[in-house]
Please model this.
Amino acid sequence: MNRIYDVNQTNIENMGGNKNMNSVLSANDYVSIKKAIAAKVMTDDHVSFIEVQRIFNDHNFDYKGKRMICHPEHSNLVFWSGWNDTAINIMTEILQEHPIGMSTADIMIYLIDGGGLQLPIAKKARSYKKNRWYPVVLRPVQA
Model:
């Protein structure tokens, strides 16, 4: 799957990184969270967004919001949702700065991790009339 993703059309904004950080998260914490997520993906492979949220929680970062991470070509395919701008910026920068991408995942990974989205599940990457969850995991990109 392509390393580039899009943000749901309801909240398209310039995602330039640190300039959009909210006041609750210091620059050091921002960098620390990015490093922790990248390290987790590089060592554990197949990292779900539930596991990323655990890292956010470990750093006492309030990531909750109304943003969605969507497929770049099929805007109704939702990879994950419920994050704020800062969380989206963190993930954007990780995908740009590290050899990390997204791969389709079995729903069982999310069930085992203890969560998921309250959307119908997409069977394949294609256009749908309404939002559907397309489960993915973060993985190191093979050179």
Observations:
- The first helix runs from residue 27 to 44.
- Residues 42 and 140 are 6 Å apart (CA to CA).
- The longest strand covers residues 64-70.
- The radius of gyration is 14 Å.
